[in-house]
Amino acid sequence: MRYPPVPIPTRAAQWIAALLIGASLFATQRGFPSAWITVLALAAMCAAFLLPGARLDYRVEGRHLIVQTVFKRHTFPLRGARASVVKVDGALRTFGWSGLNGHLGRYAVTGLGPVEVYASTLRGSLLLLSLPGRPPLLLSPQDADRMALDLNGEPTPAPEDAARP
């Protein structure tokens, strides 16, 4: 089953890309050597328009959680795993990166200790997945409650409209 991550708004990055493109065009009209500005504008366009938001994907296949990031596929066995929904008050990155494509790596989270993060955001309701023999995972699915219920083996409650005849 697929659990989409919380999308990242990229409006600011798109405006920055548009401003860099405008600066490149202005510099070209004025006769300035604009090769470096053009390169920056193209890089900003790629970042803002071709990679909009986090390229994360959470899937559960059999008894494995698969986290697909921009460059790599991570597989975690779910045997003995326990999922819960948490809110993060503060996080300090100890190894990894944070940016336009989300938060990936090891973080020290207030109240939770060291965790591995594969999240598009550290705000709102996040899924904490405790796995035996490794640091817990912190994920950001759109519906963290449903994913926690599914991973814990509990049936997902049906919507009230679907239950009515």
Quaternary structure of the protein: single chain
Q: How much helix, percentage-wise, in residues?
A: 25-40%
Which class of secondary structure composition applies to the elements? Answer: alpha+beta
* Overall domain count: 2
Spatial gap, N to C terminus? 27 Å
The low-confidence runs, each spanning 5 or more residues with pLDDT under 50, are 161-165
* Morphology: elongated
Mean pLDDT: 78
Largest sheet: 6 strands, mixed
- Looking across the biggest beta sheet, what order are the strands in? 5-9-10-8-7-6
Strand segment count: 10
Helix count from the secondary structure assignment: 4
Helices and strands, in order, run as EHHEEEEEEEEEHH
- Radius of gyration, CA atoms, in whole angstroms: 20 Å
Beta content: 25-35%
Q: How would you briefly describe this protein structure?
A:
Keywords: Membrane, Transmembrane, Transmembrane helix. The protein is α+β, with helices and mostly antiparallel strands and 165 residues long.
Could you characterize what this model shows?
- The chain has 165 residues and is an alpha+beta fold.
- It folds into two domains: 41 residues; 95 residues, no CATH class.
- The protein is 28% helix and 34% strand.
- The protein has four helices and ten strands; from the N terminus they run E-H-H-E-E-E-E-E-E-E-E-E-H-H.
- A six-stranded mixed beta sheet has the order 5-9-10-8-7-6, covered by helices on one side. A four-stranded antiparallel beta sheet has the order 1-2-3-4, with no helix packed on it.
- Strand 6 and strand 7 form a beta hairpin.
- Helix 1 runs antiparallel to helix 2.
- The radius of gyration is 20 Å and the shape is elongated.
